[in-house]
Amino acid sequence: MTGEATPRPEARAPRGFVDRRSATLRTERRILEAVSRVYEAYGFEALETGAFEYADALGKFLPDADRPNEGVFALRDDDEQWLALRYDLTAPLARYAAQNWTSLPKPFRRYAFGPVWRNEKPGPGRFRQFIQCDADTVGSDRPEADAEIIAMAVEGYAAAGLARGAVTIKINARGLLNGLLAANGVDDPGQRLASLRAVDKLDRLGARGVSDLLGAGRLDESGAYTKGAQLPARAIDAVLAFLAAGGGGRRDTLQRIAGVIGGSDEGEAGLEALSRIGGALDSLGVGETEAVFEPSVVRGLEYYTGAVFEAELTLEGGAGAAFGAIGGGGRYDDLVARFTGERTPATGFSFGVSRLAAALAAAGVAETAPRGPVVILTLDPALMSDYFAMAAELRAAGLAAEVYLGASGMRAQMKYADKRLSPAAVIVGGDEIAQGVVTLKDLDLGRDLAAQVSDNRAWREERPGQITVPRAELAAAARRIVEAAS
Ligand code: AMP
User: Are 375 and 420 in contact (CB under 8 A)?
Assistant: First the structure.
């Protein structure tokens, strides 16, 4: 080994992990603040739990059901216990609620936000680390609790800057499809799961593809064959009729669903839940197009036990579909019971903040990059203490300011200020100090004026956008430029 140079690592972010700069961060923070305000207005309290949970606390409810051991990032602690990075904010809440149940106010209403990690194949809009913002009610089985969660989601998207009508919350109840299958003699859990997966592909494969997957199976274009759920023909017809029952107002949809669901306890319970959610949505003032009943909504996470919700972007021309769901949630009545043995009904919703930020950018509502600080050029190293005194003065006046700390000359320093989107540069050398003045350059104005001047010498002489003021007026002059810029 001796004498061999250590190979240099290639500077690259791991797949599915995204570096985010200030404009994106700004959008995300604005979303988090807006959504948090909505949650707090409804009486939800903030809670933060750690990034890691014991792997057994996360359970088998991993996002990718096909790869149950690969959905999380896990490591072994020094006491041999397996830890895993949380893959959502719901499983940690269930653990927290179970751990603290006796002392919590019940029902427990909390909101939380932060990064979650999923060890899955990254793709467009699909990251391995992304931010979620959730609200959940633990300890209430009232459908009104679901309706409230949906109403907050509707308000949250509006508060985040999406026009009302740009987002639709689609609501379904897990029991409906199960009940429908039961009414048609399908009780096998494997067949039920395969049916659920088939229905989940409606968007991509259409009714024909789903029908094949519900039956014998489907051969796709690449020649790969997927075995079907092997349902009898009459059950397939019933499922397809159920899937076609969506569209239109909530009351009408419910009536159509009731018409195809057939008598089964689970189906009836699902209908009852949706009907009560619908009633509560009406009284909460949630519009008919803001939240709809949609039988084709399945939702991936397997811990849902009742109503499920999914938020879809409905941008003009169908552009929203490209983003996938921008939020989702539902009722999970068994998650806390994993720890306590006692059934604890719960319901919640998760904003996919990272995806929502991308969606807002597409809808033209994203933040532009924030303006940079006032940059104090360092023209003379002997004046560093003066430069720092000026920066402190500007900061005390409430303006962001920095002293240029690189080693380049004046032109490069001006370029730096431009690249930082600075509104102003402070240009002070020995002459200015001697005369008791400071020179400020309005960089926006300078850029505009420079564009109009073709003669280089005239430009230098006119020094567009530049003003010289007494030293005592530095902060006031800088403020005028900064305020005009923003
Ligand atoms: P889930 O926790 O799977 O119910 O997801 C809730 C929301 O988080 C989804 O509607 C998406 O907006 C977002 N989301 C889920 N998975 C990802 C991912 N891999 N990358 C980015 N956003 C995601």
Answer: yes
DSSP state of 369: P
> Is 126 touching ligand 1 by the criterion CB < 6 Å?
yes
Q: Is the CB of 480 under 6 A from ligand 1?
A: no
Say how many C-beta atoms besides its own lie within 10 A of residue 126's C-beta: 14
Say if residue 381 is preceded by a cis peptide, omega within 30 of 0: no
For ligand 1, atom 2, the nearest C-alpha belongs to 88
Q: How many angstroms is it from 186 CA to the middle of ligand 1?
A: 31
Question: In terms of CATH, what superfamily is 374-485?
Answer: Anticodon-binding domain (3.40.50.800)
- Superfamily of segment(s) 22-362: Bira Bifunctional Protein; Domain 2 (3.30.930.10)
Q: Taking the model in full, what pTM does it have?
A: 0.88
Which residues are within 8 A (CB) of 50 and not within 5 positions of it... i.e. 6 or more apart?
92
Buried (b) or exposed (e) across 259-272, using 16+ Cβ within 10 A? ebbbebebbbbbbe
Cβ–ligand 1 distance for 439 under 6 Å, the answer: no
444 lines ligand 1 (CB under 6 A): no
Per-residue pLDDT of the chain (486 residues; tens, 9 = 90+): 555 788 999 999 999 999 998 888 989 999 999 999 999 999 999 999 999 999 989 876 554 444 445 689 999 999 988 899 999 999 999 999 999 999 999 999 999 999 999 998 898 888 999 999 999 999 999 999 999 999 999 999 999 988 888 899 999 998 899 899 998 888 888 888 889 889 988 888 899 999 999 998 888 888 888 898 899 999 999 999 999 999 889 999 999 999 888 778 888 999 999 999 999 999 999 999 999 999 999 887 678 889 999 999 886 655 555 678 899 999 998 899 999 999 999 999 999 998 888 877 777 776 777 899 999 999 999 999 999 999 999 999 999 999 999 999 999 999 999 999 999 999 999 999 999 999 999 999 887 776 676 666 665 666 678 999 999 999 999 999 999 987
Q: Whose CA is nearest to atom 17 of ligand 1?
A: 126
Bridging pattern class, strands 374-376 and 401-403: parallel
Q: How many CB atoms lie within 10 A of CB 458?
A: 10
Contact by Cβ (8 Å): 156, 166: no
- E strands, 332-436, are 346-352, 374-376, 401-403, 424-427
Check if 118 has its Cβ closer than 6 Å to any atom of ligand 1. Answer: yes
**Residue closest by Cα to atom 10 of ligand 1:** 327
In the chain, domain spans: 22-362, 374-485
